[in-house]
Write a structure and sequence with these properties.
- Its EC number is 4.1.1.96.
- This protein is α/β, with parallel strands linked by helices.
- The chain has two domains: 3-11 and 246-331 and 339-371, Lyase, Ornithine Decarboxylase, Chain A, domain 1, CATH 2.40.37.10; 33-241, Alpha-Beta Barrel (TIM Barrel), CATH 3.20.20.
- The protein has eleven helices and 16 strands.
- Strand 4, helix 4 and strand 5 (99-102) form a beta-alpha-beta unit.
- It starts with 9 loop residues before the first strand and ends with a helix.
- The model has no long low-confidence stretch (mean pLDDT 97).
């Protein structure tokens, strides 16, 4: 079917746009020898894993279910990090993963020998305590009191025997200048132990496929650590893989006025695009402008009972009418993986737009998807 024929609400992932991102990432790998993994926490649409696997080295997971998904659906390198592993899950995680990264020396002491006995690579997450973000402490792994990674104060080099890699993750939607500053902090605090490692993982948060991103500096950073410490460098971006490669189609259900013009859509910020409320984040809306920029401004909200279920204020060239279809951009990442059925909201249909422009429904959800997760 064509794009305009899809039911709403509907997530649509564009194959051509996704592949455009993958080619950029593949170019970084080819020029530097680094390995790039899909961070599944941002994008787990495994229908697209065969395409992603053509370009990237594998997957990064946050626990058992993601580890299983990456193992089953991509079947390449599979790395796992969790702030703490469960005794009843660790053995299966080890069987599915190539690299298992620990968040503390206590977890390393508890499970590290099992990983080594299975012939898998043991990693340790460090915290370089180098905050490069502004205004998003909820997404800053280096914020005061962060539960992520071992600080230099808690570092125990006598326990590094058998550890083959170091992992850090400090960025969120940032350019490579933030990575360069972070690497300086990593070297200053942990540099004396890097030469005894086999690999280092720069984590995620690298907005590599964003227009204007400084790829040259990124590649300089990669080469710097490869050449100085003889390390295999990994990156595990999530957003960069599917950035601007997805859409959310929605329909105007009703309009009302309360000091401002309001339009109720058949999609929900709290259910279908949670980052709108968590970041907060204003998703791009095709054909719209900022509030007041065009002739007609509306506050767009969802149909749930949550007062704050508001997507934002957008302006249009002409008045919205009931039944109008509007399309949000950048809706592949942190949308499907975070959505929920609060208020009994139906989950959006998932579709793919192929290179010819044809759309194919991948999954359509129903009442049982809501009911069966509750009891």
């Amino acid at each position: 079917m064509r794009f305009e024929e899809l039911p709403t609400p509907c997530y649509v992932v564009d194959e051509s746009l996704l592949e455009k991102n993958l080619k950029i990432l593949s170019g970084v790998m080819e020029r530097t020898g680094c390995r790039i993994l899909l961070a599944q926490k941002a994008f787990s649409m495994y229908k697209m894993y065969p395409l992603i696997g053509k370009y990237l080295s594998g997957t990064a997971s946050s626990g058992l279910y993601e580890a299983k998904l990456g193992y089953e659906e991509m079947g390449k390198e599979n790395h796992c990090f969790s702030p703490a592993y469960r005794e009843d899950e660790i053995d299966e995680i080890i069987s599915l993963s190539d690299h298992i990264i620990f968040n503390s020396f206590s977890q390393l002491e508890m499970f590290g020998e099992r990983v080594r006995a299975a012939g898998k690579s043991v990693g340790l997450r460090i915290n370089p305590e180098c905050s490069t973000q502004e205004g998003h402490e909820i997404y800053d792994p280096c914020a005061r009191g962060s539960r992520f990674g071992v600080t230099i104060e808690q570092f125990r080099p006598e326990l590094l025997e058998g550890v083959s890699g170091i992992h850090f993750h400090t960025l969120c939607e940032q350019d490579s200048d933030a990575l360069a500053r972070t690497l300086d902090a990593v070297e200053e605090k942990f540099g004396k132990w890097l030469s005894q490692m086999e690999w280092i993982n720069f984590g995620g948060g690298h907005h590599i496929t964003r227009e204007g991103y400084n790829i040259e500096l990124l590649e300089d950073c990669i080469r710097r650590f490869q050449e100085k410490y003889d390390l295999q460098v990994y990156l595990e971006p999530g957003e960069a893989i599917a950035l601007n490669a997805g859409f959310l189609i929605t329909t105007v259900l009703d309009k009302l006025e309360n000091d401002i013009e309001i339009a109720i859509l058949d999609t929900s910020a709290s259910c279908h695009m949670p980052d709108v409320l968590e970041m907060p984040y204003r998703p791009p809306l095709i054909g719209s402008g900022e509030a007041g920029e065009k002739a007609y401004t509306y506050r767009l909200g969802g149909p749930t009972c949550l007062t704050g279920d508001v997507i934002g204020e957008y302006s249009f060239d002409k008045p919205l009418e009931n039944g109008d279809r509007i399309v949000f951009g950048d809706m592949a990442i942190y949308s499907m993986v975070k959505n929920n059925t609060f208020n009994g909201m139906a989950l959006p249909t998932i579709a793919v737009r192929d290179k010819s422009g044809d759309c194919h429904i991948v999954h359509k959800f129903n009442y049982l998807d809501f009911k069966e997760r509750l009891s």
